Amino acid sequence: MSKTNQLIVPHLWYDKEAKEAAEFYSSIFPDSKITGVTTIHNTPSGDSDIVSFELWGQKFMAISAGPFFKINPSISFIVNFDPSREKDAREKLNEVWNKLTEAGTVLMPLDKYPFSERFGWIQDKYGLSWQLILTNPEAEERPAIVPSLLFVGDKCGKAEEAIRFYLSVFKNSKQGLIARYPKGMEPDKEGTIMSSDFMLENQWFAAMDSAHEHKFSFNEAISFMVYCDTQAEIDYYWEELSAVPEAEQCGWLKDQFGVSWQIAPSGMDEMMRKGTPEQLARVTKAFLKMKKFDLLELQRAYKG
Known about the structure:
This protein is of the alpha+beta class. The chain is 24% helix and 36% strand. The chain starts with 7 loop residues before the first strand and ends with a helix.
């Protein structure tokens, strides 16, 4: 992968279905493709497929690495069908909805809501959740796919604090729209975030609070990879974001809100893709021992 201008990449953890899921999504969304599949051996969960793919121009990564974490709706993906960009936006939305509902679970039925002419929230057969929305063509333009964080349980009411924190950590960032819950929306508390979006490293994200009873919270099944060019960058993000020492492993960390991040060298994808089986084995062995990635050590392992 050439040096990506998308510095933050959503990463999906599956038991065995990473490749199958990526193929399924690539077949549903416009302008989508699988860009690479690498298998690494001798990990704690045996052989793992690492799949990189693009959906409607948004880069994703997925891994098959055993049944340790289960994807849930605390992180979902908003899909904006914009009539000013897509001439058959409504038809496209319906079509994508029909494909995603196959063996899926409807979380909010496809319907007209106060905030949109057409909206639905679906959890697909792989557990991944999508919010499909027909956007208002007059509104400020947003990308087609936007990751969205749902603050529930003991994290409910913290969306605003989290957004402020992320805006302080990442460069090229700004606050977008904020809509707060009005009075009379119990159990949601007046003034908490009903919906909001913000930009980090020129990429849009969304966040919302929900005080309703949810049986899930943030976990490692969906994380965000932050690609770094230097050890100094790796150190910076690690220092700023890591809040749960026991979650630090192989470049993974957890922040104070429970969201998982992977702080990864941008050259790592290339090593994984172009490396010989021996090089791959050495790099894998090296990084399985690390908490925070040591760039020099990884390059040494690669060169052998």
